[in-house]
Design a protein that fits this description.
Order of helices and strands: HHHEEEHHEHHEEHEEEHEHH
Protein name: Inactive metallocarboxypeptidase ECM14
Subcellular location: Secreted
Helix content: 25-40%
Oligomer: single chain
Shape: globular
Domain Peptidase M14: 52-376
Strand order of the largest sheet: 1-2-4-3-5-10-6-7
Number of strands: 10
Radius of gyration: 20 Å
Region (Disordered): 1-38, 387-407
Number of helices: 11
Function: Inactive carboxypeptidase that may play a role in cell wall organization and biogenesis.
């Protein structure tokens, strides 16, 4: 990509001043804004929030607004504090169907995270898209209502707020967090190489300038440590069982399962992981026609690009290796179904995916997420026969009636 083309591609990912700005998005009376018009269950296509990528300064008040409009099933969560002192925002979406739940019974939870790498904006917008649709469909759509009764869903749109803000203000293609290193002019740690399980910083040791710099020790990345500490506290002290973990990245359209650190060692539940991964990929393909390849994370590549001649070029791997969140949640926190999903596209735009892809990407991953939830519901036998009939009747209805029409 030539320099002027790169500059234009970068410019195209920022919000248009005529369609979305922080101040305009927060005006409560503007048509199609994401503010109190949420009460009217506006669709995501007409919701201005998803017409553009949004900065952190808009995402945080948007979360607060959702919590205030839907207090029955939305709660704000603070995962921890970043290196530069920002909150790591999240929302917990879920409701207990009755008041007779045994206090000794653990609440099953599913975590969907994005934005570990600052420049992967579509991962952040996709987490927000899924959260919004589950929130607004509760009580309106039987299948979505049951998912919120069966599980708590924790949505973390950006695990790397410092880096995300930096991509908006300074360097659109910045990847790491903004932590100081031993080299004053080379800041940042790759958060997805910072977790303690099979941490291996040897490949980047002494090179803080590397985009994959893992730090000098496990959990040196502030935000990775905060996330791991929060999750462990949930399981050890808050009566929570984390049964699913989906870590969204970009790009290359892949569904990746453990392990990331090794292609030799197989996870003990490989058959189950592959079965669910196949279902996720199929849910996307059947609804939207896009192919998401299924691989172990150690085999995942940033992209597989085709030249005009038809020959393939495999770009260098960056997401794989030791110290990944995927491996940590699967092995250390015993999350039975943990995946990393790499979103659109396959290399034409890469990290600079145009904003026109926000809703289509959100749609296809929402379908994968609802499949994920249904699979785990059956795995844990949480749904009654009457609920199954209700959901089946809903799925057999005309498309115009399903999920309130177009999403």
């Amino acid at each position: 990509m030539q320099e002027h083309e790169l500059a234009q591609a970068i410019a195209n990912t920022y919000p248009s001043p005529t369609t979305s700005t922080s101040s305009r998005a927060l005006e409560p009376d503007r048509a199609h804004s994401f503010s109190p018009s949420l009460r009217k269950a506006t669709t995501s296509e007409t919701n201005m929030f998803f017409q553009d990528y949004q900065p952190l300064s808009v995402i945080e008040p948007w979360f607060r607004l959702l919590a205030s409009l839907y207090p029955t099933h939305v709660r704000l969560v603070n995962i921890g504090i970043t290196y530069e002192g920002r909150d790591i925002p999240a929302v917990r979406v879920g409701v207990h169907p009755t008041s007779n739940d045994s206090p000794s019974e653990k609440r099953r939870s599913i975590i969907i995270s994005g934005g570990s790498h600052a420049r992967e904006w579509v991962s952040t917008s996709t987490v927000n898209y899924i959260a919004y649709n589950l929130i607004k469909d509760y009580g309106q759509v039987a299948s979505m209502t049951h998912l919120l009764e069966d599980f708590d869903w924790i949505f973390v749109p950006t695990l790397n707020p410092d880096g995300y803000v930096y991509t908006w203000k300074t360097d659109r293609l910045w990847r790491k967090n903004r932590q100081a290193t031993s080299l004053r002019f080379c800041r940042g740690i790759d958060l997805d190489r910072s977790y303690s399980f099979q941490w291996n910083g040897e490949s980047t040791a002494g090179n803080p300038c590397s985009e994959s710099f893992a730090g000098e020790a496990p959990f040196e990345g502030s935000e990775a440590k905060a996330f791991a500490d929060w999750a462990r506290n949930e399981t050890e002290n808050n009566n929570v069982e984390i049964v699913g973990f989906l870590d969204l990245h970009s790009y290359s359209q892949q569904v990746l399962y453990p392990y990331s650190y090794s292609c030799v060692v197989e996870p003990p539940s490989l058959e189950n992981l592959e079965e669910l991964a196949s279902g996720l990929s199929k849910a996307i393909r059947l609804a939207h026609g896009h192919v998401y390849k299924i691989l172990s994370a150690c085999e995942g590549n940033v992209a597989l690009k085709e030249k005009n001649s038809g020959s393939k070029v495999v770009l260098p791997r960056m997401e794989t290796g030791g110290g990944s969140a995927l491996d940590y949640f699967y092995h250390e926190l015993k999350v039975r179904y943990a995946y990393q999903i790499k979103l659109r596209d396959t290399g034409s735009y890469g990290f600079l995916l145009p904003k026109e892809n926000i809703v289509p990407t959100g749609k296809e991953i929402l379908d994968a997420i609802t499949y994920f939830g249904r699979y785990l519901t059956e795995e844990y036998s949480l749904r009654s026969k009457e609920q199954d009939k209700e959901v089946e009747a809903e799925r057999s209805a005309p498309v115009s009636e399903w999920r309130g029409g177009a999403r």
